[in-house]
Design a protein that fits this description.
InterPro entries: ABC_BtuC-like, ABC_transptr_permease_BtuC. The chain is mostly helical. It has helices at 16-40, 46-51, 58-92, 104-118, 123-145, 153-177, 183-190, 199-217, 219-224, 229-234, 239-261, 267-277, 283-308, 318-335, 347-351, 358-381, 394-429, 441-455, 461-483, 490-513, 516-526, 535-551, 556-561, 566-571, 576-598, 602-614, 620-644, 653-671, and strands spanning 382-385, 388-391.
Length: 673
């Protein structure tokens, strides 16, 4: 067996296409760099400015101490993220793993947010150390939660995502309450490459050199990570120890970039994928080519940003715009790629799963359903008013039910639909990191909302729903088009969804980084809000929930067979193309219906399937039956608490769902062996 190729998908592509695209991107980056440098300084003075600038010429000082360090920092940051992303994907055996999987960016941003609000003196000379400390602490928490499982890839990845969502929710809550004091973090959160000296160049260059050397020393054990755990142990690999070393390397590399320039998204995920598409099948090849891809993506992005926002590019953060240039490149390669037939990551475990006794499942289902009814009754009748917590009288209830009932009904429907969509997504792709948002439908809805906000500031509720629906439909059609040539193979669907979602989210991130009322409105909607729910919205949500969820049992046969792989499914008479197309459409409809009503509630779609599995659901229909009420009770509880706890202020349901659900899931993960 060729160990180096065990988990890399066969992504056939014309051999000349990657080389042509690379030359075109390189030529564009060089041309833009020359143009931006010409705008600052005449060509006759370039050599002097680069090596021995005249201290009396401010333009030469700008080139030497700002423009050139920025260029080099972009190269180094992209290369480091490409290297870290390759290590993460190899160790965790997951194409969705990336440098921010272990909560590095979320921890750094939360640490800076807390320091800005309550310890601003630390930011004067130790801002980078604050960000680095927050990133490392978060990573340590993730590794601690997954330690008892032997740092199993699935547990590490899920723990990382949960901690990331938790830290991110705390940060967003603080931004909603203290937005005027955190304007500078909008730019930092978007990833800004602006430099004033060469200190970051020195730091990042040393990290890249040391990290590359360690990665090459770990080449053999990381290659063995491509095998399953039993085979890796039989070859003498100490899984826990070597995973810890490799993950620590990737975390330190990622944290170095985050602390130096902020959050640079998409590069760490796209660079390894582009390296594989370019023909890098062996791990050593990917370790060498992925950093080059990352450096090239970030170089092109930063030079384009400088062209769009002035000579020094200080209006648009580069990190937020990275996907605007990286995603089309990834999509262009995907459109030329032949079908891929590998078994989805993690599907082996799903295929071997065994069901729990039906009686036990039934008791748990009715227990969760009863809890949902109790919480719904409390949400309608028990609240916090001027005289404290109290049950509403009949007269008071008749006055407040007109807005409490629609919110509770919409929360129940949205939670159930996202939970079912998340379960189907993870089953279809065989990937525990997959969530409804991976399809890019939520990002498309957000993009539609932004387009409406730019074109009509006074748009009404119906117009906002229509714009969000148009954006969601656009994202779905694009994903289906890019995936149809591969018969909707899971890895192609994931890559297409990530690329399109990242492209749309880049526009959202740029809008948020601009600050102002538009940024606050988007943050509130992205956090998952039921503020504007009307009785018509609630009724529509409940009808869509009942209809779409009722279609799910009809797909049970497909959900049981598809994880077995392409050959097995065909042998059992299942048309993989038609089955995956139908399931993807159902997932998209569930996600879009929930998103249009209450916004993207990331936590529920990602974690409700894991809650169901931790409670014993193994077969597809069992998992759906448990995940749906879990999602419903999570969102209705979150909406009730978000409305009542801080009266007269409110927290979006999506934030509260993460804040109350993530600690419990972290506790379950920490106890699991």
């Amino acid at each position: 067996m060729n160990i180096a190729r065990t988990h890399v998908p066969h992504l056939a592509i014309r051999p000349w296409l990657p080389a042509v695209l690379t030359l075109l991107v390189l030529a564009a980056a060089v041309a833009l760099s020359i143009d931006s440098l010409s705008a600052i300084l005449p060509p006759s003075l370039w050599w002097q400015a680069l090596w021995s600038p005249d201290t009396h010429d401010i333009q030469q000082i700008i080139v030497h101490d700002s423009w050139l360090p920025r260029l080099v920092v972009g190269w180094l940051s992209g290369a480091i993220l490409g290297l870290a992303g390759t290590v993460f994907q190899q160790v965790l055996r997951n194409p969705l793993a990336e440098p921010m999987t272990l909560g590095v960016s979320a921890g750094a941003q939360l640490a800076l947010t807390v320091a800005t609000l309550w310890a601003p003196a630390l930011l004067g000379g130790a801002g980078q150390w604050v960000a680095l400390g927050g990133a490392l602490i978060t990573a340590v928490i993730v590794l601690g939660l997954s330690w008892r499982s032997g740092l199993a890839p699935v547990t590490v990845a899920v723990a990382g995502l949960v901690v990331t969502l938790y830290c991110g929710s705390i940060g967003v809550a603080l931004q909603l309450f203290y937005a005027p004091y955190l304007q500078s973090l909008f730019i930092w959160g978007g990833g800004s490459l602006i430099q004033q000296d060469w200190s970051n160049v020195t730091t990042l260059a040393s990290r890249l050199a040391i990290g590359s050397g360690i990665a090459l020393l770990l080449l053999r054990p990381m290659t063995l990570f491509g095998l399953d755990d039993a085979n890796a142990r039989s070859l003498g690999l100490s899984l826990r120890r070597m995973r810890l070393v490799a993950l620590a390397l990737a975390v330190v590399l990622s944290a170095a970039v985050v602390s130096a320039v902020g959050v640079i998204g998409f590069v760490g995920l796209a660079a390894p994928a582009l390296a594989q598409m370019a023909g890098a099948r062996r791990l050593l090849q990917r370790l060498l080519i992925a950093p080059l891809c990352g450096a090239l993506i970030l170089w092109l992005t930063d030079q384009a940003v400088q062209q769009l926002s002035g000579a020094m590019g200080d209006l648009i953060p580069t990190g937020a715009a990275t996907a605007l240039f990286g995603a089309p490149l990834l999509l262009m390669l995907l459109a030329r790629m032949h079908r891929a037939t590998r078994l989805p990551a993690g599907s082996e475990d799903i295929a071997r799963s065994h069901a729990v006794p039906f009686a036990s499942l039934r008791r748990r289902f009715f227990g969760i359903a009863l809890l949902m009814l109790v919480v719904s009754a409390l949400a309608l009748d028990f609240g916090h008013g001027p005289h404290g917590w109290h049950f509403s009288s009949l007269d008071e209830l008749s006055r407040v039910a007109i807005w409490r009932v629609p919110r509770a009904a919409a929360a129940i429907a949205a939670g159930a639909m996202l939970a079912v969509a998340g379960t189907l997504m993870q089953r279809v792709t065989g990937n525990p990191l997959a969530s409804p948002e991976v399809l890019g439908v939520s990002a498309g809805a957000a993009l539609g909302l932004i387009a409406l906000a730019i074109g009509a500031n006074d748009a009404g509720h119906i117009e906002r729903i229509a714009a969000s629906a148009a954006g969601a439909l656009t994202a779905l059609l694009a994903i289906l088009w890019f995936s149809q040539r591969s018969r909707f193979a899971p890895d192609r669907v994931l890559l297409a969804g990530i690329a399109i979602g990242a492209l749309f989210q880049a526009v959202v991130a740029v809008a948020i980084a601009s600050g102002g009322e538009r940024a606050a409105m988007l943050l509130q909607w992205l956090a998952g809000s039921t503020y504007t729910i009307t009785p018509i919205d609630a009724t529509l949500a409940l009808v869509l929930c009942v209809v779409l969820c009722a279609l799910t049992p009809l797909c049970n046969h497909w959900l049981q067979i598809l994880p077995l792989g392409e050959a097995s499914a065909r042998a059992l008479g299942v048309s993989t193309r038609g089955a995956r197309f139908a399931l993807l459409c159902l997932i998209a409809l569930l996600t879009a219906a929930a998103t249009l009503v209450v916004g993207p509630l990331s936590f529920v779609g990602l974690t409700a399937p894991h809650f169901a599995r931790l409670l014993g659901a193994r077969r597809p229909l069992q998992q759906v039956l448990l995940a749906a009420p879990i999602g419903a009770v999570t969102i209705v509880t979150a909406d009730w608490l978000g409305r009542a706890l801080l009266m007269p202020r409110e927290l979006p349901a999506g934030l509260v769902a993460t804040l109350i659900g993530a600690p419990y899931l972290m506790w379950l993960l920490g106890r699991r062996r």
